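Hello Y.,

Per our agreement to keep a running log of every chain we model this quarter, I'm adding this entry. I've kept the format consistent with earlier entries: sequence first, then predicted structure.
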Amino acid sequence: MYSQKKILLIFLFLSTSFFAQGFSEGLKRQGLLQMQNGKYGEAIDLFNKYISANARVAEGYNLRALCREKRQEFPLAFFDYKKAMRLEPSNGDYRRNFERMISIWHPILYDKIDGHKREIAIDPDFPFNYLEIGKSYRWLENWELAELWYDRYLARDPNASPDEIIRYTLILTETRHLTKAERILDIYVEKFPEDWRLWSRLGWITYWLGKNRKAEGAFLNALEFKPFFKEAQEGLDFARREGYIIPLVDDDDDDDWRNREYPIDRYFRILRTNPDDDDTRATLMEALLEVGRYEEAYQQGQYLLPNYEGVDWFDNLWKRVVENRLEAYNIRINEYLAILKEDPQNKEAVVQISQYYANLEQYEDAAELLSEYLDYDDEDHEILYLLAKYLAYDSRFDEAKDFITKAVDFVPTNLEYKLLASQIDIWGGEDDLSLAESYLLEILEAEPNNIYALIALSSLYFDQRDFDTAQEYSDRASLIDPSNPDLLQLQSLLELNALRLEQERQLERLNEGRLIFQEGNCIDAIPYYEEFIATNQITEQLYIELADVYMCADRYDEAISYYDDLVNGYYDFEYDKQRAKVIFWSGDSIRALEEFQRLAGEDSVDTEIQVYLADSYMKIEDYDQARSIYEMLEDREEAQYFMIDQRLSWLPPSEDMLRNPFRQLVTNLFSYLVITPHGYWFNDNLDFDYQYGGVGLQTGLYNRISVGGTWLSGRLENENGKLDYRTVKGNLFYRPSDNLGIVVGYGNMFSFGTINQPIWEASATYEEREKFKLSLNYLKSDGAVVLYSPSLVFNRLTAHSLNLDSYYRMEEGLKFAANYQLIFTNSTNTYRDNIGNMLSLRVGKYFLEQFAAGYEFYFSDFKYTIPLYYSPQEFVSHSIWGEWFVVKDERWDVKLEGRLGYVPANDFVLTDLSGRFNYNIYERLRLSIFAFLGNSIREDVTYSSRSISANLYWTAF
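Predicted structure for the entry above:
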């Protein structure tokens, strides 16, 4: 059993451990390269090293499993996939890989079973086939059929190896056929009397069946051939829990020895079924003390010490146990020291003295004695093992590691040595615990009920933050000895950690919701918040967040309710004002008006309250009251920030204004001025260049009406020369509502002696941002700037373009878009008039809030093919498209869009890529840049083009 000091060491280690550092990406890349070359063995070696450096990274286990699967090492692949899935439970790829391997491996096992059955039909007496079927069912975890086929195997092979018998008894343990396992082991310990594993297994089976005396004999036989075999030592401890001179209880039939039950046996039996029975445990300590079994009494006291230290009855009992134990040990130590004085190389004396020293926690004395013995024989692996153990108990982990490594090297098959080596790595805080993990798994494969291996493996996984697996092994250990002090300490730590992890998990979930909210997906964020508040107290900050989330999701009633709670519990004037604003945004104009009237009474100088008060009057169509407040605010410094002039422009003309239109004109004329410098450049591989630069102006005129003008200086160029031109155009803007805008423009494009082209332009756009858009645009201009043809640089042609553009985004994330363009060209002396259609239909989905992709169908057709410009007939392409909002916040807006398509008629793959960049330099100045690069086909020739445009929007006043 572990001492109290050792338990404290484990806690110290667990609280100060740290994780393996960094990723060995080079190893992973080399491993992937070997995988691609089909060298899976070399890849596994590299992934072993990668996993050693990155034990908590699931990808390494998944990659190693893939290699092992390729090599058809399915059992090893099984364990690796399981590990990857435990580390990343949400990774669908790992689960699919695992399920794929199972779908491959299990049919192979069934085929193997069928193959051996066919062999059995040919030769029913050949035992190998029965054994292989039993093994296959064992891997399929069909324990009942595995037992059946092992039975048939053993009926035909009287010379089965001890290894197969041990595997068979493991299967019988799963099917709970312990009596049957006892019969088999009775036969095989006679066949292989020196195999300590069979004797130890017989000991445990008979112990579980309640046959303590037979179990004790089996464990003693095991220890005779393997003196320090830990499995047998532990079993012997359990089997010997009996009294030798205590009278019988609960039985009057002295002649029937089978019905006898000694008190110590009875107490142990009670504690096995009820480990929390402290009264029985104390009585057991008294009974053990009376018959001189001091070490067992001391071990039972360890269970009671944490809860009863300081209680008189326990302190008195504990003092007697400690004193008697110390006296007995000192007597035995002196006896063996006398032997050692006569024979310094007496190994038994050295071992016994060191054991007594260790029980008394005199580890330094034990280690010194064992070290002196190694001067005579430095290859005695049993002494090396004991020395390593006691050094570890004394926290001298580096020294202990050296000695246990030598012991394992001398006897690589000794599982007890490997257990201690694993424990030392864990207690000593080794960075790389992969060797310890492999040792412990090997031990549990051979000894599934080795409680110390289970505790060590649970501690290892706890250190690696694989808490689910740590809990799994802790649960397995509790089935064996639920009151084990080491296990209880570990379980307490796991329970505390589970609470901490649950709190962290809830906070992580809340932060996930916060991130979703920040990305603008408010509806999806709500469940995260609701999950958190279901089990946690709502803080002041969380009230604010919840209200904002519900408001963003247009669930105003819930938002108002949270602001009600906030105002009632943490009153602040700003919270009160925010609640009134939410009421206003919810559409409850009457209640909003009442709230802002109350708030204005409390603070009449707060401009924001006055603005919302006026807005509330406007909502209920009390325009005179709204106007009077807006006009009162016009002289305040914040007027421009709250766009008071614009708000006044939203109001319908008052009766005064209607009677006096001139007054309305004076109110709105030059109320603002927007200056827009802009430039454009286009080039293609047909030697057509088109560029211009200029400036636009827009200013207020009347209620919701503004005027402006555009001046451009441009150039058209082909391989034969260039043509400079100017454009002057006036514009009229009308905005009936916030979502609808109408623009009409007229001007002239001219170049002395060459171009004199009137320009007409009109457009109407209705848009609900990021949800719906419908735009109709008409343009009449020179053909060169509509059709982008090098042949039109020095040939004049009037072109008309009518363009309909639309999109609709559904709440589910689906997006539909359509664009239709009708082009009409006037006839010339050489060419007749022509008409063309271009149609683009798109459907797609937002797979992330910032990313969408889908399918596009494009069709273009002209009535006539005219040499002056590209006028295809029945041009069709099919494409996939994608758009990615790289950045999107209050200042930045960066979007990339691409298309990859196929033109069936020409067997051609087309591509294009565009990017949009918007930057709000400051409140009144915004920069917008758009760039395009594309490759397509025209008249069986590859066509490429590129363009860039830039606009600067400056609100001068």
